[in-house]
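Internal QA ticket QA-208
Title: Verify multi-chain structure generation after dependency bump
Assignee: T.L.

Test input:
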Amino acid sequence: MSGLQILLTMIILPAIAALLILIIPKKAFAVKSTILLLIVLVNLIAAISLWGKELTFLMPWGGFGIDFALRVYHFSSFIVAAAAGFAFLVGLYAVAFLRGKPFAGKFFFYYLVTLAMVNGAVLANNLVVMLFFWEGLLVTLFGMVMVSGREKFPTAVKALTLSGFADLLLMVGIGITAWQAGTFAMDSITPIPVNGISVLGFVCFALGAMGKAGSMPFHSWIPDAAIDAPLPFMAFLPAALEKLLGIYLLARICLNFYDLQPGSGVSIFLMTIGSITIVLAVAMALIQKNYKRLLSYHAISQVGYMVLGIGTGLPVGIVGGLFHMINHAMYKSCLFLTGGAVEKQTGTADLKKLGGLGKYMPITTICFLIAAASISGVPPFNGFFSKELVFDAAIESGMIFYIAAVVGAFLTAASFLKLGHAAFFGKSRDEETTKNTKEAPLAMLIPMIVIAAGCVLFGVYNALPLHTFIQPILGHALEGEDFAGWPHTATLVIISVIVLVLSIANHAYGVKKTGNGLGSVDHIHYAPVLSNIYNGAEKHYFDPFDLLMWVVKGFAWLAFGIDRAIDWIYNVFCVFIVSSISRGLKEMNDGSQSRYIVWSFTGLAVILFVFIALV
Amino acid sequence: MPTSLQFATATIMGLPFLAILILNLVNRKTGNQLALGVGIIVAVIQMISAIICAGLLWANQKDFIDFSIFWNMTDSAFAGRLSIDFFSIVVLFCIGMVSFISFLTAKQTVGDKKLNFTNLLMVIMLGMNGIAVVTDLFSLYVFLEITGIASFVLIALFKDPEGLEGAFKYLIMSAIASAFLLISMACIFMNVGSLVYSDVAAAMLNWQAADQPLFLMAAFIFFIAGICIKAGVAPFHGWLPDAYQSAPAPVSVLLGGIVTKVAGVYAIIRITSDVFSGVATINMILMILGTISIVFGAVATLSQKDFKRILAYSSISQIGYIVLGISTGSPIGFLGAVLHFFNHATFKTTLFVNSASLEKQVGTRDINEMGGLEGKMPLTNVSTILAFLSTSGIPPLAGFWSKLLIIIAVWQAGAHFVAGTAVFASVFTLAYFLFVMRHVFYGPLKEGLEDVKETKGSLALATVLLSIVTVGFGVLFPFVLRFLQAQGML
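Actual output:
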C-alpha cells in the first residue's frame, strides 16, 4: 500500500467500520468488539507505517481554494501515531469495560467515527477541511456523552454548547487567518505578524484550539462528563485525543501560522489563560470527593501547563508544552483507566466509600502510583521533565507565571496524595463496598501497564521522545539547544523538590488533623474566605456555561418581550383597527336603498371632482 | 373561412334565441326536461365558437373581424357593425364557460323551474354576447338592458322575499345606471351626431374644442358613473352584495362569475380603450376607483358571515384589480386586466359553485354554523383552497400571473403607492381566505354536521372542471405569455 492510500484508509476505514458496527445486531457484542479492536489495530499499524514519511494528497473539492488536502510530516505523523496508540489501548480497555452494557455498540460506533475525525483533523492540510473534521468531533462528543442514557442530556448539551462555542471562535479565527494569509492551504501559510486584525484572528484561533484541549473557560463540561459519560470516553477524548488535537493545533498556530514573539501581548494573553487554568482547576480538583471528578479537574489544570509553555513563545516552552501534552495524555489516560478499574470492581468512584484497595488491586495501585507521581512531577517520571521545561520558560517570561505554575504543582501533588491515600491506602470506609474486590481483568490491566511503562520510559529516557518526536518539530528555532537529559536549571529542580516535600508535609498535617486521607486537604477547603469561594464554585456560580446560560436566558426574556410586543401590534392592534373598519363598512351596507343611491351620486361627484381637478 | 365565420357568429347571436324558440314550442313538461340539456349544448357550442373565432383571428393575422347577422346596415349612419377582437373572444368564451357551469349547478338546485331558468339564462347570454360584439353605444345600452332585465327576474326566480328584495335593489340601481347612460348618450349624440365607438372616440379626442364641451364632459362623467354602477365598483357597489346573496345558487354563479363582469367591467374596458381613450383623465379616475374598490372590498370582506356575501365583497375587490389594470393604459395592464377577467370568472365561479354545494349539503350559508368539513367534503375543500389561493395571487395558480401583470403595469405607470396598496390588499385577500377556511373546513366538526356528505354529480363535475382550469392555466401560463409575445400583443 502506498502512503497516500494509507492516508485515506485511516480516515475512511474507521468510518465504514463504524457504520458496520451500527448495522450488526445488538446481541453480537463479540463481533462488534472484534471489529473495533481490528480497526484500532489496523489504524495503529497504518499510523506507525506513516512515521518518517513526507506526503501530500490533494483533491479539488469546494473551489475558492478549498481543496481536500492531506499532509503527513513529522509533527502530524507523531500526533496521528500517538492518537492511534491511545485509541488502541483505550479501545482494548473499553471492550472489557463495556462488556454487557446495552449501549456498547453505539459507543463503539462513536469511538470509530471519532477516530476517523481525529485522523482527518490532524492530517488535514487545508483549514476548511480541518474545520470539517473538527466539527465532526462535536457530533461524536455529544453522542458519546449521551450514549448511556437520556438523562445525560443536560451534560451532553453543556459539552456541545461549550465546545461548539469554542469551535465558533475557531471558525472566526480560521476565516481571519485565511484572509490575512491569502490561502486555506496550511503548508503555504507564512507566519503572519500579530498586529491589527490578525490579533483577533490569533486570539480566536488559539481560543478555539484551547477550547478543544479543555482549557478555561471552555472546561466546565468535563467534570460533569466525568460523572455522566462512560469512563473510556474520559480516557479517550478529554484525557488523550482532545489534548493531542487541541495542543497540536495551538502549536501549529504559534509555530506556523502566526509569528508569535515572546513577551508580546498575545503571548501574555496565552500565558495568563494558562496560569489561571492551572491554579483554578487544580484548586477545584483538590476538594473533589469523587475519583473521576477529581481527575477531570486535573485534565483541565494540566492543559494550563501546555498553554503556558507554548504561550511563552520560547523554544524551551514550546518543547516543554508539547512534551507535557504527550506526557499528560499518557498519565491522565492511565489515571482514568485506574479510576475505571476501581469503579468496575467496586461499583463506585465515590472516595467516601473507598479505601485500602491497595491490597486487593496491587497492579492497579502500582499503575496509579506511577501515573500520579508523573502528574505530580516526581523525578524521574515523565511529568517531572516536561514540567521543569515549562517552569524554565515561565520564569523567563515572568515571575508571576512561574509562581502560578509552582502553586499548581503544589496543589496537584497534594490532591494526588489525598486521592491515593483515600482510595488505595488507609482503611476502607465502607467494608461492604470493598471487601469482595478483585483485581481488574487482564484486558483492562494491559493498557494501564503499557501506559504506565511509557511514563517511566519517557521519564528515564526522555531523549527518546524529545529527540525523535518533539525537537524536530521546532527544527532550526532551537538553535542547537537540546533539552534531553536532566533539567538544565538546578535552582528550579531544587524548588520543585521543596514544593513536593511541602505538599507531603501538608498532607501529613491534614491527615493528623482529620485522621484520614480523604480529609487531608480539609484545612485548605474550609479555610476562611476560601471555603466561601469553594462553596460558590461547587454551586456552579463560576461555571462559564451557567453564566452563559444566564445571559442567554436574559436575552431570551428580552427577545420574548419584544416578540410579544410585535405580536401585540400584529395580532391585537392591527386586527382591532382592521376589524373595526370592516365592521363599520358592514354596518353601512345594511340594505338601505337610499344610502346606496346616495353613494352612487357621491361616486359621480368624485369622478366629476377628479375630472375637473385634472383638466 | 366564410362558413366557419358564419357558423361562429351565427351561433353567438342566434343560437340562444333559437334555443328559446325550441324550448317554448314544445309543451311545458317536455320543455322542463329538455331545458338544461339544451342550455348546456348552447353553452358548449358558444365555447367552441369562441375558439373558432380565435383561430380565425390568428389564421388571418388580424386584430379584429367585422361581421353581420341577418341584416347589414354598415351603410347606415346609425349602427350595425359587429366586431370580434381578442378581448371579445375571451369574454365570449367566459360567457360560455360560466353558463355551462351555471347549468350544471342548476341541475341540482332549481327544481321544477328549469324551463324558466333556461329561458332567462338564454336571454342573458344573448344580451352578454351582444355587449361583447357591438360597436356603438346605443346597441351597448340595449344589450345591457336585455341582460339586466333578465337578471332581475332570475334573482327573483323563486319569488321568495329575499330574492325579490335583492332583485328590487338591483333593478333600482340599474335604473339609475340606465338614466346615467341615457343622459350621457343624449349629450354625445347632440354633439357628435353618431354613437359609433370610433366616431365618439374621434370627437372625444378633442372634446375641449367642441361646440359644447360641457356636454361632452357631462357625457363622459355620467357614462363612467353609470357603467360603474353596473360593474359594482366601489362606491357604486351597494346593490351587489345584496343581489348576490339573495339570488338562487345557479344565478349567483352566473351573476358573480360573468354578468356583472360583462355588463360592467367589460363595458368599462371597452369604452376606455375604444371610446374615451382620448380623454386624459380617465386613467386617473379609473385608478382611484380601482384602488378604492380593491381596499374597500378586501377590508369589508373580513367581517362578513355569509359565504356568498364574502364572495360578493371579494368580487368588488377583484373588479378593482381589473379596473386598475385598465387604468394604466399600457399593453401589459390591458393584458393583465383581460387575463384577470378570465381568471376571476374561473375562480369566483368555483367558489360560488362550492357555496351552492355547501348550502345544499349543510343547509346554511352562515360560516359560523359550519366547521370541520375538511374530512366530510374533501373535494369542495380542495377546490375552495385552490380557488382562494388563485384569488390571493399565489403562484403558480392562474390568479398570480394576471395580478402580477397588473401590478407590474401599475408600477411601470409610476403609481408606486397604488401598486404597493394593490399588493398589500392581497394580504387581506389571504386573510379572509384563511378566515373562511378556518370557519368552514378546519377545526373540530360542528355538532349536527356528522351526516354531511360530499357533493355529487353535476356540482362535483363543475368544481373539478373549474379547478383544473385554474391550476392548468396557471401552470401553463408562461407558454400563454410566450405565445402572446410572439403574436406581438405584449
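Spot checks passed. The beta strands of chain B are 64-67, 82-85.
Status: verified.
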